[in-house]
Amino acid sequence: MKKYLVIFSFIFLLISNVKAEWIEVGNIEQPDGKMYLDIKTLSDDGEYLYIWSLKDWKKPVVDNGKSILSGKTFHKIDCNLIRSAGVQYIFYEGQMGTGKFSNFQRDKLKWNYLPPGTIMGNIIKTLCDNR
Fold it and tell me: Is-contact 50 78, C-beta < 8 A?
């Protein structure tokens, strides 16, 4: 089963990279960079919203000994409690989701409660208000 999940994830990554249309949504201060959303990936299952984001850093970030310049996150958004959880993370050696990558997926969701005024807090508010 795990083998099929890895194969499906790889195919999904290839398809999503081809069709992604990243829209800049703000600057990231720590570390210095920008955040983007792919609005085409926005979906609503009636209870939660889902969307891909991309963070692109000006200088490499070291994570577990690997140097990365960008990372994608698949977000699960709860509009009722104004919170978000990263379902899947993909870290890239190149900018804007290019180059060699490593995949990370949590066994259990870690919900983040994001205050208004933060990039993700503003994204959640905008997406939920326009649902």
Answer: no
pTM of the model: 0.81
Q: Domain 2-129's class? A: mainly beta
Q: Render pLDDT for 106-130 as a digit per residue (tens, 0 to 9).
A: 889 999 998 888 999 999 999 999 9
Q: 36-78: per-residue pLDDT in tens? A: 999 999 999 999 999 999 999 999 988 778 899 999 999 999 9
Cis amide prior to 31 (ω within 30 degrees):
yes
Q: Cα–Cα distance between 120 and 105 in angstroms, integer?
A: 20
Give Cα separations from 5 to 12, 55, 91 (angstroms): 10, 24, 18
Angstrom distance (rounded) from CA 116 to CA 125: 8
